[in-house]
């Protein structure tokens, strides 16, 4: 609709040979296992939506919101029907993706602010010692760029994307800054580049009077600037191989989408409840249902821009594109006419018939849409019922890119390439684990068709274990824990064997007493 990047001046990419020589001379700072490189390393584009639910794309059953580009991507590739995020909120989910570790081993197990005096202090950083998939691919000769929302540490911290394997970063380092689509600045690597002066704050209320969308718009729409930078970087690195990570911010509220998208959705949608006034947080909007749909359609358009650019450069045949989301859709709050920020996730059946929302370890908070296109490798229009999740992408992308795996870092994922190529479903020896330190503390384990959930584990009144058989109870409507205590015991035992203590995100119910070994 709005984007015309054909005028961007292409720049001849720097050769990868020099980079390879430098790596060979300097060496790596950690021991590595050998990886297998294909004859030609494919480019990798990983697109991560923010708070997009399992049922919010047309190819996953959505009937009201238009997502033609993602639907086209699905027709050209594979839809994963049981793909899970690594965590039910932003930062820890991104940590599991970057590090290949589930929440029982990850350094970041909930959203937590860093400690500094900055306007937007950023999130608790991952450490220098952790190895990211970007670092592994960079060492294998890939150019690496990230554009969007980071959430794993500010520019001065060990978690800076430039210190974690990315040659180039442009976007929001801080999740809090990303609450507004017209923020004061975005980060260009370590530099804060002014975007809107004055900026639009991400949280306001308007208890009375007319609500106008234009009152909450600024000069520069951040998603468009992020996309421009991503396209320019793609142009510069088109000779490849490249790893392009696109953690776009939509449809995370606030509701601030372009008016031209809002105008494409029916006025009648918003006649039932009228304007949203900010009572559930974030910004007011006169047409919240249309605005929420517009944000997803705008996200879809951004994906289309990237796909078109790959076509323009003749790169689509040698590029694997992965699209998924960091966690489930926005959850309810005080005024039940809307969800947080005025979002309309119940109206759009955003969880796709699954139980729960963002912040929940039920299926609606964890099971994500996931689409993979890889011409010549992935069968067009195919689906997979394999149970997979975010930590799997580290070993999978390393395999695809011929990168090496860190020897001294626990990796909890498995290589998905046999499933992608139709060569058979790989065996998973350990259960899927979520040890979430936020929202009162939630533990979830999936092993085969069985899934156990325990809530409020960090409170004075922890809930009992719940148990669901997802083979015949996809919506988790029937808790069968009392009928199968032996399964609960088995899953809890396997969970305890698949976790380590993380002092920054303690779990008193499961951590051993101070000074006592976890293996005693």
Binned strand content? 15-25%
In quaternary terms, these chains amount to: single chain
Pattern of helices and strands: HEEHEHHEEEEHEHHEHEEHEHEEEEH
Question: What structural class is derived from the secondary structure elements?
Answer: alpha/beta
Number of strands: 16
N→C terminal distance? 61 Å
What is the arithmetic mean of pLDDT? Answer: 92
Radius of gyration: 22 Å
Percent range for helical residues? 10-25%
Low-confidence stretches: 1-39
Shape: globular
**Tally of DSSP helical segments:** 11
Major sheet attributes: 10 strands, mixed
The neighbouring-strand order within the major sheet is 7-6-5-4-8-2-9-10-3-11
Keywords:
disordered N terminus, four-stranded antiparallel beta sheet, 520 residues, alpha/beta, 16 strands
């Amino acid at each position: 609709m709005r984007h015309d990047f054909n005028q961007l001046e292409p720049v001849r990419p720097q050769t990868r040979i020099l980079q390879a020589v430098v790596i060979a001379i300097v060496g790596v700072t950690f021991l590595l296992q050998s990886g297998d490189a294909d004859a030609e390393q494919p480019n990798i584009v990983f697109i991560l939506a923010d708070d997009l639910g399992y049922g919010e794309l047309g190819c996953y059953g959505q009937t009201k919101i238009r997502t033609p580009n993602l639907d086209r991507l699905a027709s050209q590739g594979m839809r994963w029907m049981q793909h899970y995020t690594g965590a039910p909120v932003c930062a820890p989910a991104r940590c599991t993706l970057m590090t290949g570790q589930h929440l029982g081993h990850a350094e970041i197990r909930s959203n937590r602010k860093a400690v500094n005096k900055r306007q937007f202090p950023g999130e608790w950083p991952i450490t220098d010692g952790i190895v990211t998939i970007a670092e592994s691919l960079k060492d294998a000769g890939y150019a690496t760029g990230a554009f969007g929302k980071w959430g794993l540490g500010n520019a001065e911290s060990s978690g800076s994307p430039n210190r974690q394997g990315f040659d180039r970063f442009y976007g929001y380092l801080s999740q809090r800054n990303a609450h507004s689509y017209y923020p004061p600045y975005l980060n260009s690597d370590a530099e804060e580049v002014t975007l809107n002066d004055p900026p639009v704050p991400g949280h306001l209320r308007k208890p009375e009077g007319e609500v106008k969308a234009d009152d909450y718009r600024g000069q520069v729409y951040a998603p468009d600037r992020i996309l421009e930078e991503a396209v320019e970087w793609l142009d510069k690195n088109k000779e490849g191989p490249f790893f392009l990570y696109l953690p776009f911010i939509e449809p995370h509220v606030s509701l601030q989408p372009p008016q031209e998208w809002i105008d494409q959705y029916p006025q009648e949608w918003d006649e039932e409840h009228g304007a949203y006034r900010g009572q559930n947080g974030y910004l007011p909007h006169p047409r919240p249902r249309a605005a929420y749909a517009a944000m997803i359609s705008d996200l879809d358009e951004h994906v289309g821009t990237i796909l078109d650019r790959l076509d323009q450069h003749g790169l689509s045949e040698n590029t694997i594109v992965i699209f998924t989301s960091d966690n489930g859709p926005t959850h309810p709050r005080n005024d039940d006419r809307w969800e947080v920020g005025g979002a309309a996730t119940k109206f759009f059946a955003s969880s796709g018939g699954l139980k729960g929302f963002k912040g929940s370890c039920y299926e609606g908070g964890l099971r994500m849409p996931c689409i993979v296109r890889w011409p010549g490798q992935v069968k067009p229009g195919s689906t997979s019922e394999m149970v997979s999740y975010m930590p799997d992408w580290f070993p999978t992308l390393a395999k695809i890119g011929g990168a090496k795996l860190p020897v001294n870092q626990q990796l909890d994922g498995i290589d998905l390439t046999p499933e992608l190529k139709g060569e058979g479903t790989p065996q998973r020896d350990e259960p899927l684990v979520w040890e979430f330190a936020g929202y009162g503390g939630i533990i979830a384990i999936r092993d085969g068709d069985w899934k156990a959930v325990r809530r409020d584990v960090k409170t004075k009144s922890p809930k009992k274990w719940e148990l669901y058989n997802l083979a015949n109870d996809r919506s988790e409507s029937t808790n069968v824990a009392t009928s199968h205590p032996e399964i609960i015991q088995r899953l809890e035992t396997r969970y305890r064997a698949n976790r380590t203590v993380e002092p920054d995100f303690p779990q008193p119910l499961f951590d051993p007493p101070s000074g006592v070994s976890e293996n005693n």
